[in-house]
Design goal:
alpha+beta, Multidrug efflux transporter AcrB transmembrane fold, four-stranded antiparallel beta sheet, 11 strands, 7% strand, elongated
Length: 784
């Protein structure tokens, strides 16, 4: 160890001034915790896409004109929904729901009450309402009436996650008694995007309380089993707590909001920190007898500084590469983890050595550590990997190629892996909300909504009242009816549909007139109708120069959204040709449908680009650490194999790419490359003597740490397998599998590839003329 080295002097200074270091970190911790606990949770679909995206911009512009609105549907199910007792309970429930702030209710019964100036709870009124509700396809198509149910659609005027939670809680409070005892109904179901968002918000918040204790328990058991010291365990736990608190505190300071994937942030930091601490402490505990403890502490951190810094830097920049993603939570996650790794690096090289010295953490000459079997393993592995090199390397290549085909497909043979962006699929499939929503989708043709925003053509003057002109109304009605003829469309609910409903209420049939005189009459009465029908006003702006038509379909991925968008555009063009009044108008598709589809569209580019950037960045890190070009390439074999094989595992088990599993490639590569950097860093110290000498040296110095660090990585991420949300559960399982596969390649394919590249043999298999005298070097021994 160079005594004039700046880094050595800095580490000595940290050890000498350890009390000051501990005080400084003690001052940092309280504000970090304070801001960490202030971080909010929001899983709204509009948070899943960056705000600069054109569809996100269009959605915000649409909200400025027509306001915000989220939809909930309550289904009151019974054998005879029109029985008097049922209608009494239904009317009472709707009245209570209408009194909730920010909630607008509108059922077939409320429409009837407005048309008939009320509803009396008599058999005659019940029979009259049944005739009214079942006398048209309008109510069935809009999901208001079914064979065994009556529905209450609710419009929630909420802007923030907190407002949504408050309104959902108020609805739950209103319906709690009926849900517990649904009589006279057989059941009461509640579905809608606000409930999906609220479910995700609650579950992701609660899952932290379930998952992190499991992870910490795993860390406690494994570290104590490895080092057999409570003092060491205490030092490691303190550093982990500081790393997690500063990272999440940074999220709070910068005003960040957690989403469904954000719990990966503290877990990744904890796992990265734990693995790094294992590398450092494993070097520290192997103190040769008679060496000064303080000098050995400085030496251990100095010896591991370059490999540890390179690996953490590569991981940080690799995660930062996720910032190019157009999916907002993934972009934020990459940025937060990158910053968190920097905080972790600072804590690892300041707080940890200070704690090791203060707590007098024991070394191996004071207390034996676990895994003496590893020395025998290092003696056996080099020869074994040489014997099977022509099986191991081609075998890993084949598995990697199969994984690539599973992900990207093979033209004409294998389709690419499916993408899943429907937030409903992110919740527990055994939950009542999931089952109720899937059941309702079958009844009304879906819960996906694409808003068709009708405005004057760009550059044209915004003529007041244009949307209430008779000719325009006829064109919009024709457009809506044409859309509803397509089997992919459940309903086109807008101003024409409401006007048809009002016409039916007045006894004039459920269709708008097609003649000029009839439409003029409808248009003339519209001003009076707007004053009485608040729901109709939601579909017109203040100048009555813009309107929108919500198109109800199944929830769409990008491919199917493109088909629906084409249907909408083609239908509009065809209607314009038939209705000249529409030629001065244009349409835009906005809302949750396009946003959700756009997320699907961005997923694969996010995977490919972020993974490519991560590979390039890590390769540059290897370029700086390793002089050998072959070593730079081979160092990535385990991670690449693990990631591609993991995609094959996904395909075999029926898992999908979603907003969580899309992160696995960058997460595994950014975390597991630590092993390869440490492996090749120590391999290079002895590789000039022979391939075998390099392998034995690196296995003795870092092999055990690689094994335990991988077990920590795999076990830590496996805690996510306890999550109720399918994407998070899949992320945990797949990450654990990938880490284990990476370690398998570290100890098999990597040594085998070294034998092939350097064309060397183990000493035991060389002919007598090939053998060289082995040079003894104390540094290659475990205690060096």
């Amino acid at each position: 160890m160079n005594r004039d080295d700046f880094l050595t002097r800095a580490l000595r200074g940290i050890v000498r001034r350890r009390i000051l270091v501990l005080i400084l970190w003690a001052l940092v911790l309280p504000p970090s915790v304070y801001f960490a606990i202030r971080v909010q949770q929001d899983n709204s679909i509009d948070r899943l896409i960056v705000q600069s995206d054109p569809d996100a911009v269009a959605a915000r512009e649409f909200e400025k004109v027509f306001g915000v609105g989220e939809y909930v549907v309550l289904l009151a199910e019974s054998d005879d929904p029109f029985a008097l007792e049922n209608l009494k309970a239904f009317a009472s429930l709707e009245e209570k729901l209408s009194k909730i702030e920010r909630v607008t209710a509108n059922s077939a019964l409320s429409i009837y009450k407005r048309a008939k100036a009320g509803f009396e709870a008599t058999p005659e009124s019940a029979a009259a309402f049944k005739t009214f509700a079942t006398g048209t396809e309008l109510f069935r198509r809009q999901g208001l009436v079914g064979k065994n149910f009556l529905a209450i659609p609710l419009v929630l005027a909420v802007k923030t996650s907190q407002e949504r939670h408050d309104v959902v809680a108020a609805i739950d409070g209103t319906t709690a008694a009926l849900e517990a005892n649904p009589k006279p109904f057989t059941s009461l179901r509640k579905v809608g995007q606000p409930y999906v968002n609220a479910y995700l918000d609650t579950d992701t918040r609660q899952s932290g309380f379930r998952l992190f204790p499991v992870f910490f328990l795993f860390v406690l058991i494994l570290n104590y089993a490895l080092y057999r010291s409570f003092r060491t365990l205490f030092a490691i736990v303190i550093v982990l707590g500081v790393a997690a608190a500063t990272t999440v505190g940074f999220v709070g300071v910068t005003g960040g909001t957690f989403t469904i994937v954000s719990q990966v942030v503290p877990m990744t930091i904890l796992i990265t920190a734990t693995a790094t601490l294992v590398y450092l402490h494993s070097r520290y505990v192997e103190k040769p007898p008679g060496v000064d403890a303080d000098e050995h502490l400085v030496y251990a951190f100095r010896h591991k500084f370059l490999a540890t810094t390179a690996s953490m830097f590569a991981a940080a920049v690799g995660f930062a590469a996720l910032a190019e993603s157009k999916i907002r939570p993934i972009r934020e996650l990459g940025y937060w983890i990158a910053v968190g790794i920097v905080f972790t690096w600072i804590a690892v090289f300041t707080l940890f050595p200070a704690l090791e010295k203060t707590l007098r953490c024991p070394t191996s000459d004071e207390r034996k550590t676990a895994a003496p079997w590893f020395v025998k393993f290092t003696e056996w592995l080099p020869t074994w990997s040489y014997r099977f090199r022509w099986v191991l390397v081609p075998g890993f290549i084949v598995f990697s190629a199969a994984g690539a085909v599973a992900l990207f497909g093979l033209p004409g043979v294998v389709t690419p892996m499916d993408l899943q962006t429907n937030p409903l699929e992110y919740i527990d499939h055994e939950s009542q909300l999931y089952k109720d929503t899937k059941a309702l989708e079958k009844v009304i043709g879906g819960l996906g909504i694409t808003e068709v925003w009708v405005t004057p053509k760009e550059g044209s003057p915004e003529k007041r009242g244009v949307m209430t002109d008779a000719e325009v109304l006829r064109g919009l009605n024709r457009f809506s009816l044409a859309l509803e003829k397509d089997k992919r469309v459940g309903a086109a609910v807008g101003m024409p549909a409401i006007l048809r409903t009002l016409r039916y209420v007045s006894g004039e049939g459920d269709q708008l007139p097609d003649d000029d005189a009839g439409m003029e009459k409808v248009a003339a009465s519209l001003e009076t109708v707007l004053e009485k029908e608040p729901l109709l006003r939601r579909f017109l702006n203040e100048k009555q120069s813009q309107t929108h038509i919500p198109v109800v379909t199944e929830t769409l991925d990008y491919k199917h959204f493109v088909e629906i968008d084409k249907l909408i555009q083609d239908t509009w063009a065809e209607t314009q040709r038939a209705e000249p009044a529409l030629k001065e108008l244009q349409i835009r598709t906005v809302g949750l449908g396009p946003l959700q589809a756009k997320i699907s569209y961005y997923m694969v580019p996010t995977l490919v680009r972020s993974f490519g950037l991560t590979v390039a960045i890590i390769f540059v890190a290897f370029l700086l650490v390793f002089r050998s070009g072959a070593a730079r390439l081979m160092a990535m074999i385990p991670s690449i194999f693990a990631i591609l094989a993991m995609f094959g595992f996904m395909r075999l088990t029926g898992m999908f790419l979603n907003v969580a599993t899309i992160l696995i490639a960058s997460t595994v590569l950014g975390t597991s490359e630590n092993d390869q950097i440490h492996f090749f860093y120590h391999y290079g110290e002895k590789s000039k003597e022979s391939t075998e000498a390099g392998l034995r040296h690196t296995l003795l110095i870092s092999g055990k740490a690689i094994f335990y660090a991988t077990m920590i990585n795999a076990g830590g991420f496996l805690a996510f397998a306890l999550a109720r949300l399918p994407p998070i559960r899949q992320f945990g399982i797949l990450s654990s599998v990938a880490f284990l596969l990476s370690m398998l390649a570290d100890f098999t394919a990597l040594p085998a590839a070294l034998w092939l590249v350097y064309r060397d043999k183990p000493e035991a298999l060389k002919a007598p003329a090939e053998k060289k005298p082995a040079a003894f070097d104390a540094e290659s021994q475990p205690g060096a």
